[in-house]
Amino acid sequence: MRSQEEYEYNIDGYSLYFDILDETRVKETIEITISPNVPLSRYTFYSQYPIENPEAIVEINGRTQIANVSVSKVVGDINAIYIGFSEVSSGDNLKIRISFYSEGMLQDINGKKQFSYYLKFEQPVGYFYARLYIPRGYAILSPIVPSPDKVESSGDALLMEWKKQEVRSGEEFYFIVGFSGELNNTFPLMYFVIPILIAFVGGFFAGILYKGKERSGINLRSDEEKVIEILRERPMYQSELVKRLGFSKAKVSLLLKNMEKRGLIERVKDGRTYLVKLKEM
Fold first, then answer.
1. In the prediction, which pLDDT does 54 show?
2. Which residue has the higher pLDDT, 18 or 75?
3. 206 pLDDT tier (thresholds 50, 70, 90)
4. 8 DSSP β-pair partners
5. TM spans, by residue (predicted)?
6. Domain check: are 13 and 70 in the same one?
7. Fewer CB within 10 Å, N- or C-terminus of the chain?
């Protein structure tokens, strides 16, 4: 296990804010609090989702400045936002706020909307926070993964919050929230509390959420049948399965991990992706 000092910087806090704007677009904001261990003048944020109109502000030792921002496609669907700022070094306090608009986090699943997002930390994080803003007019449905720490009705919106202390390096998070329907100008809180109580009551990270449970509203059985039907043709890469199924990358990854644990399929690491095939009986 690497000590914090082996990284270029320590991540003291990492916050994600998702604002659903319409049926396709989401505004994503990332706030990161960093303690550098070496001289640092650039931070790179990677996203598997499209990036539109990125902006960044940095705060160095309490002083705010506009950061230089550039975007490029790294490989496949992975995009990178490069944030440049005045050099900081050990002992300085650095806060970075990145915001952009994106599509791809919202999908139509069986006639209903579903928000999904996948995140993996490559180094430890002191405190992790995520918040999802859902505008008035939608009814929340299961699945809600993971179970939120807080649900709040705020006038014209519903807010969901997730929190976790001491995130480990390599820890993964899958966020899935289903919603649909039209409400009559109100957001009665109990309307959302009831679906939440019947949603998953797993741990905060995906590895605990799917230990053989089959209570999800994702319709896993139906989705598993689709995967098996496709793989009967031939083994294929996970990225190709995403295109064939029409699901989000996060949902496919979660689905395949669950199927692998249950002995239905095999996933063989091949470079940056997986070759997926049916399990030989």
1. 92
2. 18
3. very low
4. none
5. 189-210
6. yes
7. C
